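Dissemination and training. As part of the outreach component of the grant, students in the summer workshop were shown how a complex can be specified as a set of sequence lines and then modelled as a single object. The example used during the hands-on session is reproduced here so that future cohorts can follow it. Participants entered these lines:
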Amino acid sequence: MSDHESTYVPKTGIEKWLDSRLPIVRFGADYMSLPTPKNLNYWWTFGGILALCLVVQIATGIILAMHYVPNTELAFASVERIMRDVNGGDIIRYTHANGASMFFIAVYLHMLRGLYYGSYKAPREMIWIVGCVIFFLMIATAFLGYVLPWGQMSFWGAEVITNLIGAIPLVGEPILIWLRGGPAIDNATLNRFFSLHYLLPFVIAGCVVLHLWALHHAGQNNPVGILIPKDRTAKDTVPFHPYFTVKDGFAIVLFLILFAIFVFFMPNALGHADNYIPANPLQTPAHIVPEWYMLPFYAILRAIPDKFLGVVAMFSAIGVLFILPWLDTSKVRSMRYRPAMRTFFVIFVLVGIGLGWCGAQLPDSPVVPGMPSFQLADGMLNSYLWLNRLLTFYYFLFFIVLMPLVGLRETPRPIPATISEPVLPGGGDAMTSAAPASPEKKG
Amino acid sequence: MNGAPQGDAANRSGDESVAADQGDPNNKDPNRRDFIHIAAGAAAVGAGAMAAWPLVNSMNPAADTLALSTIEFDLTKVQQGQQVVIKWQGKPVFVRYRTPAEIERARADDHAGLKDPATDADRVKPGHQQYLVVLGSCTHLGCVPTFGAGDFGGWFCPCHGSHYDTSGRIRKGPAPKNLVVPTYDYVSDTRVKIG
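and obtained this result:
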């Protein structure tokens, strides 16, 4: 799949002139004609969707920065001015705010796709690791951006999250003061958060280039999970354009419909009402919650009774993703052929959703109201605290125990020799062959 | 080397050792070229760090931010049984005029198995035990605790459920430390200077 022969032939004089000096048209043409596994399903369209999300966020963000004022006295009012007075400002801001949520919906599905089909396994470890870096940068960018409107949730979210750094023994406090630029969250903090919020998307864009470079060097994974042998390239791949530009394009249209429903009909559904109250450093909102896409990690933080260890657990939840390629001992990539692991994967997805749900609840409230309960250690058993701990336990169990253990002990189903075999009689070699494909391998 | 021009002969003897230790790939000992590479690399790293430091340091609190570090407060503004919240260095400070019953309760618990042991007398100024001055910032994650709530009559943090007593000491919940007593002094009987 990688290093395929260039088929670009410059036609006009100016193309020939350019091609011998800066072969940028050749680069684009080769990119569009990349041999792509012909069995990619719709779970493979989120890469293109994510590229679009990044472009939307950068484009709307640059416009918003022209109207926004990063000053504690003026920030909230400048955002309200964008909403009320700037031409089309409300739509631009709603697109940016909901765009962050859409970005995370797409990235979570993209990551789960990679997890299910084993896209992180050799020879694609670097694609996955660069992807984890992008995910981490996305979380940082989203957090910084949420602070900028300088509402109550902005301010207190920043207070709570920066305080996490203060939990580091010895150096935590000086780092905290350095990060905030003063003894408390104030104008210096807002200014630098704005600066970094503008910077990080371009760092993400740089990482996307590395992500694609690694992808096109190692070659794309596919739902069957096998590497396509060199001599099968002609049979098992199709050029990226027009086959996957069309497929990605259709998925993008569907995704934009979802995006538009949020922007035009329920723009505040994913936000928090308290962020329309100007920041007040002397009064905490009754219930501080992060944006929905951070909730699973916030839940993991709160599951641990110790402040510092809670922070360690939260960062480990992301950190464990980086070593996933070496935790998984299975020789089979796609979970399509790993029935045991597939069950654990479905539980993992449910646990992730459950952690998000727990992150939004008060730890002490009962999970089942009215059910009799008893005190277990530091909380009632029938409380979100204990449900949260149970789910956090499974989150880490999945990566640290199940990934190495199941890979060693399971018996995977037989893997087809080619990606054509499960769907075409005779593996797509000869349509006259009478041998039927095994029904259990149908995807 | 055999056919080397005569003109080079004078230099050749001087270069021989250099040529020998640079030319042999099996020679593991650092040679003079390695030394130059290491020295140049170290100088570049050092220069980079020295150039980066002012940029990093500029993110520390600026002079005008530090200049806002003291504030005076008139204690006659707070009534017995109440607290006044003032803003100091961007953070809330609680000035609480405690009732005799609240002081009594705090003193009674001085040795009640505290998470962050401190006596009530340590947390106020001698002769002014009715006034408790603490930072209004929960030592867990920095929320502002609610006055008069919680199991110990002091403060209750709504964010993650920490209970503080009438001396501002942590009694229950995830917070690790007592509410911080800032540096302050009485400039007169009714005025304090915080910071």
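The first helix of chain B runs from residue 9 to 23. Students were then asked to discuss how this feature might be tested experimentally.
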